[in-house]
Specification:
This protein is α+β, with helices and mostly antiparallel strands and about 280 residues long. It is built from ten helices and four strands; from the N terminus they run ααααααβαβαββαα.
Length: about 280
């Protein structure tokens, strides 16, 4: 007889009592509530099949398709009932997801537009800084140490000008002795801020220095340099098109928001106080 003391048994009794009470007080003459209709059309079926194929790389069987339909129906019923209970209100995750879906609709419109070439040319001209190729520099370097003696610097330069093998000079380090054509920003990342700017204007194949880095001092020989330039549209067409679509989507999203916001009146505690 221990089950009489179990909490589960008490819970079942309470549940039966509640259902019995509702049965006694309910109006038997009340007409039945008309069932809501859930329509699953061919587009819904196609979407379920597409999702299945994306995951399993094959068409679903009849049984699998029916299982997908049953799962979708269950989800739809639970979502509708959750909304009736107001469970979607105050949920930041749901709010953010719905807002993103609204913004996605606008982005999709911008992504489907194919602008004329003149439009992209204008966008390229107005945003040249986004598409300008950076200055590229290739060079050889000899590391002289953290604080080399001035005489060592002079002797090394003289040896270089005399035709000495540059790869055998200087102090051993983990720094690359030769750098291929590299953007100035990447050079500064390796050698320290400001290193690349000290190479600007250097005559190719002439050793100069000492040049300071984040590690010490170097003698450097620029082997090749390519100045920054703005490529023509045909070379960067896809990049310009994607950037135009991104900017257009932002403009459309803002215009859409302003149009929707005009249909609402927003009241805050401050505005309520000001109107009183």
């Amino acid at each position: 007889m221990r089950f009489y003391k179990e909490p589960l048994f008490h819970f079942i009794l309470i549940g039966l009592a509640i259902f019995g009470w509702f049965y006694l007080v309910s109006d038997e003459t009340e007409p039945p509530v008309e069932a809501e209709t859930i329509t699953i059309d061919s587009d819904d079926i196609a979407l379920l099949k597409t999702r299945f194929e994306a995951s399993w790389k094959r068409q679903p069987t009849d049984a699998e398709l029916q299982a997908l339909i049953d799962s979708w129906t269950r989800e739809e019923i639970l979502v509708r009932e959750a909304r009736k209970l107001g469970l979607d209100r105050g949920d930041q995750v749901i709010r953010a997801r719905l807002a993103r879906k609204m913004e996605f609709l606008t982005t999709a419109i911008a992504s489907s537009v194919a602008p004329e070439e003149a439009v992209l040319e204008e966008h390229l001209a107005q945003n040249a800084d986004r598409f300008t190729m950076p200055t590229l520099i290739a060079f050889d370097q000899i590391y002289l140490g953290d604080a080399p003696d001035p005489d060592v610097v002079d002797d090394t330069l003289q040896a270089l000008n005399g035709g000495a093998d540059w790869s055998s000079l200087g102090v051993s380090s983990l720094l690359a002795r030769s750098m291929p054509l590299t953007a100035e920003g990447a050079i500064d990342t390796t050698f320290g801020r400001g290193f690349a700017s000290q190479l600007d204007g250097s005559e190719p194949m002439i050793w100069v220095g000492p040049i300071n880095s984040g590690y010490g001092q170097h003698l450097v020989r620029v082997t090749e340099a390519k100045p920054s330039y703005l490529p023509p549209l045909e070379e960067i067409y896809d990049s310009v098109l994607n950037d135009w679509r991104r900017a257009t989507a932002q403009d459309l999203a803002q215009a859409q928001y302003e149009s929707l916001a005009a249909q609402y009146r927003v009241e805050t505690p401050e505005s309520a106080e000001g109107g009183s």
